[in-house]
């Protein structure tokens, strides 16, 4: 699965777990045209003005679906390796607990869903070998790159489903 290029307006209107006002105010990267859309299973970014905030957009049912996330920062100290629950890349200090308020009334009541995700939200690039996370970051597996991509997409879909449910 590859993302089709998205515009600022498409991204803002795709948020399912924040208000329209919050989506209007959030910081979206200005270099959308320069992103490697063909290599992305989801588009994720950190808010430069608020480092504890992150966002991701993926396609659900052929339509963009965006999530607002809160990050705990590094999930562990620099010496310990942690594994991303989306792409299964291991990092030293490069995985964060990302927490998404649930969509709708449940989220308004404070219910949320969390997952350990690559801090730079570059899972798609790690799986495709376009970005390196250091020695030992990718476990040796006997499945193909295409199967790794499908697994990452399935893990992401399960997370998004929990937020939307």
Keywords:
single chain; 165 residues; alpha+beta; 5-stranded antiparallel beta sheet; two-stranded antiparallel sheet; 27% strand
3D architecture notes:
This protein is of the alpha+beta class and 165 residues long. The protein has one domain. 25% of the residues lie in helices and 27% in strands. The protein has helices at residues 8-13, 20-25, 105-108, 123-127, 145-164, and strands spanning 43-46, 53-60, 63-74, 81-83, 90-92, 95-101, 112-118. A hairpin with a 6-residue loop joins strand 4 (81-83) and strand 5.
What does the secondary structure layout of this molecule look like, with pairings?
Blueprint: H1 8-13, H2 20-25, E1 43-46, E2 53-60, E3 63-74, E4 81-83, E5 90-92, E6 95-101, H3 105-108, E7 112-118, H4 123-127, H5 145-164
Antiparallel strand pairs: 1-2, 2-3, 3-6, 4-5, 6-7
Quick rundown:
The chain has 165 residues and is α+β, with helices and mostly antiparallel strands.
Order of helices and strands: HHEEEEEEHEHH
Seen as an oligomer or otherwise, the chain set is: single chain
Number of domains: 1
Number of strands: 7
For the largest beta-sheet, the strand count, sense and barrel status come to: 5 strands, antiparallel
Helix content: 10-25%
Structural class: alpha+beta
Strand coverage percent? 25-35%
Shape verdict = globular
> Mean pLDDT, nearest integer?
90
Distance between the termini: 23 Å
The order of strands across the largest sheet is 1-2-3-6-7
Poorly predicted regions are none
Radius of gyration (CA) equals 15 Å
Number of helical stretches of at least 4 residues: 5
């Amino acid at each position: 699965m590859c993302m089709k290029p998205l515009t600022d307006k498409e991204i803002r209107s795709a948020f399912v777990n924040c208000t329209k006002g919050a989506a209007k105010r959030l910081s979206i990267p200005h270099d959308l045209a320069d992103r490697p859309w063909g290599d992305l299973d989801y588009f994720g970014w950190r808010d430069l003005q608020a480092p504890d905030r992150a966002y991701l957009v993926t396609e659900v049912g052929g339509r963009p679906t965006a999530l607002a996330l809160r990050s705990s920062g590094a999930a562990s100290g620099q010496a310990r390796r942690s594994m991303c629950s989306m792409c299964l890349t291991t990092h030293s200090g490069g995985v964060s607990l990302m927490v998404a308020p649930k969509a709708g009334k449940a989220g308004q009541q404070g219910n949320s869903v969390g997952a350990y995700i690559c801090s730079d939200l570059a899972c798609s690039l790690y799986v495709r070998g376009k970005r390196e996370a250091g020695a030992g970051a990718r476990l040796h597996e006997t499945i193909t790159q295409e199967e790794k991509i499908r697994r990452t997409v399935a893990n992401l879909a399960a997370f998004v489903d929990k937020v939307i449910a």
